[in-house]
Specification:
heterodimer; A: mainly alpha; two-stranded antiparallel ribbon; B: 459 residues; alpha+beta; three-stranded antiparallel β-sheet; rod-shaped
């Protein structure tokens, strides 16, 4: 096949253009850290990239939901814990007040203590954070307990979904403070205080079982919160593991190894330099120079 | 035979070698001229016993009809693939970028804001942010629709430019056909005209595709778009005109007697055919996908929002408004005036009795990211969007691959034709040497005959 100059020059131009394109591509890959420069270079890689981004977004949302759930549950736990101590104190006062050796004056003093404990318990029941009243349920903008201790909140708690798990972000305050089959805690305070005011040791002593029930109600509430916090912790661990897996998968299928990127760039640059030298030599070879 | 006959014989040699050198010189001068075919000198011995010498015949233009036809076919195919792949690459860079996807960011922002609303349904600040993100989504859909329309407009502009260029080239080709048929010379015999004719035909084929047919008089006719764009010495003109029914631009061919025909449906070759394929194929599909997604998303979000309750206890309010059908839905989507700027109107609750902490509708809105709520309940919002982008990417990849293939075929055809008819400087240098030596030899013969005549005269 005869070699003509036009074909030779065209071939040289193509080689140089190809070498330059390789260098540009290698530069872009080294800068972006991705295996490809655009989706149409490798549609399956593009799909992997978008799937990884979508999964990362989904994990981010789950993390935020867990954080919100954890915050609310921790606030509930922080409010119930001192309530247990208050009820323990109530038990002590009730035991003391039930003694036959106490005078009316002593019992009156204990009644004051009980009323003070009730006020503390009421304050805990009406704990408020940036998320609203902790035990308000869905009516979180209004105090769930009136000054008399009657529950005026919502038994429904805010639900959040993480992956396919539903998490209640609180406990039903009615079940803790005034369950249908349990003890009305605030009424209990009033009953004990009234009995002490009336210097009635027998009635006072008779409330001890109710105090124990109230303590159990609080413990049950804390236990429920504990279960939910454990669920949050488990989901958090799962998300952390997923993030690690996603990061590894992304590094493998979407991102380019930096060392390989720089190596390809060096190779492409070397190939361009070689192509330029060869072109220079090839274009010098002509009979015109020898005649 | 007399000595004077010998002088004539040598003289014919001088004349022939001089002309041959001129032709070689012309070849060398045009070695870099695009489309130039080597001219070949035809020398033949004068064939009678009484009249000897050398005769310079026609200057022949080298040609290879098979390779030339192959090149023309590859030019037509390359034009199509180039038009299509370039249009799709432009679309991919703005509609399916690796990073900075406006609509995807807006949708993700909307779902994140819905998450925040679900976590804190009574917060006015959170509700304001949710409405702002809803506005971002509607703006992003509008922007995407505008971008696609811009790509279509760009394709139409390129089509208009190509139509104008094709019309001009067709007229040039018709004129060249006329000159070739009438034997008009461009100073190089008909060879120069034929070189120009082949160049113009190649450029026209790249634009309109189709087939080139050469008749016995050397005239090329181009058949494309179901019409004779060039028929001998006549040519059509191509232009773009709006179609009132489809709202799209059509290719119109205007004939010799000003009769017109819409040829868009038959424009399946050449660069114009490639642009039409991209415009009416993938770009139209992307527009339809954006409209369908916007409409379905609006309906899904509204169904949830309208059954929910705002902080003010009211219900039945839509979150989005604008489109009444799928047609052009993406460009019409807006946040409903019933909720715009009114955070209390955002319906995060499922019942009025559980305000303000009820977040069940907010959870459903957030769940739209993965719920099968669009495309007839077969896809999620984000899934449908990713599928649309994946389709564009896949189509572009295929177009690029076929373009590369067509480009390679064109380069091969060009190279083969050039090797067959192009100028080889080495060949021309050798021939120059040959003609120069022959000239010197003929001059020597004259010199010898001259000396012989002098001897005779001195007798």
């Amino acid at each position: 096949m005869k070699t003509v100059d036009g074909a030779t020059y065209r071939a040289q131009m193509q080689v140089l253009q190809h070498a330059r394109s390789r260098v540009e591509r290698a530069q872009t890959l080294a800068m972006t850290g991705l295996k490809e420069t655009k989706g149409s270079d490798a549609p399956t890689w593009f799909a992997d990239l978008k799937n990884a981004d979508e999964e990362a977004f989904s994990l981010q949302r789950s993390e935020r939901a867990l954080s919100a759930a954890s915050r609310r549950l921790t606030a509930s736990e922080s409010a119930l814990e001192p309530l247990g101590a208050i009820l323990a104190q109530l038990g002590e006062v009730t035991t003391q007040g039930g003694s036959d050796l106490l005078s009316a004056r002593d019992r009156a003093s204990l009644a004051q203590t009980v009323r003070s404990l009730k006020a503390s318990a009421l304050a805990l029941a009406n704990t408020r954070t940036d998320d609203g009243y902790t035990f308000g349920g869905l009516t979180s903008n209004t105090a769930p307990f009136d000054p008399a201790g009657n529950f005026v909140g919502s038994s429904d708690v805010l639900q959040l979904q993480v992956n396919s798990e539903w998490i209640g972000t609180g406990v039903d305050a009615a079940q803790i403070f005034n369950p249908a089959a349990g003890v009305n805690i605030f009424a209990l305070f009033d009953t004990i205080a009234s009995a002490l005011d009336a210097n009635d040791g027998v009635t006072t002593r008779a409330q001890l079982d109710a105090v124990r029930t109230a303590v159990e109600q609080t413990s049950d509430g804390r236990s429920e919160l504990g279960d939910k916090l454990q669920l949050v912790s488990r989901l958090d661990d799962a998300i952390s593991n997923s993030k690690v897996r996603l990061s590894e998968q992304r590094a493998k299928s979407v991102e380019i190894d930096p060392l390989r990127a720089y190596s390809e760039l060096a190779q492409a640059s070397g190939a361009l330099e070689a192509a330029l030298k060869v072109s220079s030599q090839a274009m010098k070879l002509s009979l015109v120079d020898y005649i | 035979m007399s000595l004077f006959s010998s002088l004539h014989i040598a003289g014919s040699g001088l004349a022939a070698q001089t002309r041959a050198v001129q032709i070689s010189g012309n070849n060398v001068a045009n070695s870099a001229t695009p489309g130039y075919s080597t001219r070949v000198v035809e020398l033949s011995a004068t064939g009678s016993e009484r009249v000897l010498g050398v005769t310079l015949g026609m200057t022949v233009r080298k040609n290879d009809p098979f390779l030339r036809t192959s090149l023309q076919q590859s030019q037509a195919r390359l034009g199509f693939e180039q038009g299509k792949s370039e249009a799709l690459q432009r679309a991919e860079s703005v509609l399916a970028p690796i990073e900075g996807d406006q609509l995807l960011s807006a949708l993700q922002g909307f779902f994140s804001a819905a998450d925040d609303l679900a976590q804190n349904p009574s917060s006015i600040a959170v509700r304001r942010t949710f409405l702002a993100q809803a506005g971002s989504v509607s703006n992003a859909f509008v922007a995407r629709s505008a971008t696609i329309k811009g790509l279509v407009s760009d394709a139409n502009k390129r089509l208009a430019a190509a139509a104008g260029e094709a019309t001009s080239l067709a007229a040039q080709l018709a004129e060249l056909n006329k000159n070739i048929a009438s034997g008009a010379s461009s100073g190089d015999g008909n060879a120069g005209l034929m070189d120009q004719r082949d160049q113009v035909a190649g450029q026209l084929l790249a634009l309109v595709g189709g087939q080139a047919v050469t008749d016995e008089r050397g005239r090329i006719s181009i058949m494309a778009f179901g019409s004779a764009i060039v028929a001998g010495e006549h040519s059509l003109s191509l232009s773009m005109q709006p179609n009132a029914t489809t709202g799209q631009m059509d290719i119109v061919a205007t004939g010799y007697g000003s009769e017109t025909a819409v040829v868009t449906a038959r424009a399946t070759t050449g660069e114009m055919g490639g642009l039409i394929a991209a415009r009416d194929g993938e770009l139209a599909q992307q527009a339809a996908n954006a409209d369908a997604l916007a409409f379905d998303f609006m309906n899904a979000a509204n169904a949830i929002h309208q059954s929910g309750y705002g902080l003010d206890g009211a219900t039945g309010r839509a979150l989005f408004a604008g489109p009444t059908s799928v047609t052009d839905a993406a460009s019409l989507l807006v946040v409903s005036s019933a909720v715009a700027g009114q955070p209390n109107a955002v319906a995060a609750a499922s019942a009025s009795g559980t305000l303000p902490g009820d977040n069940r509708q907010a959870l459903l809105l957030a769940g739209l990211s993965s719920a099968l709520s669009v495309s007839g309940g077969t896809e999620s919002v984000l899934g449908a969007y990713q599928r649309s982008n994946a389709s564009l990417v896949g189509t572009t990849e295929l177009a690029l691959a076929t373009h590369a293939q067509a480009s390679g075929q064109f380069e091969l055809s060009s190279s083969m034709l050039e090797q067959a008819v192009g100028v080889s400087l080495d060949d021309q240098m050798v021939q120059l040497q040959q003609f120069q030596r022959s000239y010197q030899a003929s001059a020597k013969v004259i010199s010898v005959v001259n000396e012989m005549l002098e001897t005779l005269v001195r007798l």
